[in-house]
Every structure is written in structure tokens, then in C-alpha cells.
Amino acid sequence: VFSQPSLPGWDTMPATVSQGFGETWCLDRRSVILLVPSVVARLDCNVLINPAHPEFSKIHTGLHQPVYWDRRLFGA
């Protein structure tokens, strides 16, 4: 799990801080899954999956849920 206080600037643009963190995480293969906070919805998390990790093949998807996009997200 990513800790916001441990990486100042994770939510700024351009996204060089978060991109650098993500690239290092992926290359180091620290974990197969990383939970990161959503910049758009601060109470939500995004799940990053590292396809380079040795345990990647053990990941299986579960129950599929439809995604409903609210038009307000697109400035309508």
C-alpha cells in the first residue's frame, strides 16, 4: 500500500514524482500489486498490477462489475 505522506508531490502535475515511483516499483518487482490513492477521487484507490513480477500469473479476476461513467466527469 502506497503511503501519501511518504511521497510529497505524488498528486502534482506533471506527474514526474508518481511516475518515477511507479517505474521504480515496477522495475524492482517489490510486489505484484500496489494500491495507490486516486487523484480524482481521494477516498478511492487504484490497483496497479505488475506484469513483470514473478507472481503475476497467479492473479485471477473475480466478479466483473459494470462501470457507470457520470457525465459530470467529462465537463457536461
Task: Please give a structural write-up.
The protein is an alpha+beta fold and 76 residues long. It has one domain (4-74). It contains one helix and two strands. The protein has a two-stranded antiparallel sheet with strand order 1-2.
The overall number of domains is 1
Number of E-state strands: 2
Q: How many separate helices? A: 1
> Structural class, from secondary structure content?
alpha+beta
Core attributes:
single chain; about 80 residues; two-stranded antiparallel ribbon; 1 helix
List the helices and strands and how they pair.
Elements: H1 16-28, E1 33-37, E2 45-49
Antiparallel strand pairs: 1-2
Give a quick precis of the structure.
This protein has 76 residues and is α+β, with helices and mostly antiparallel strands. It is built from one helix and two strands; from the N terminus they run αββ.
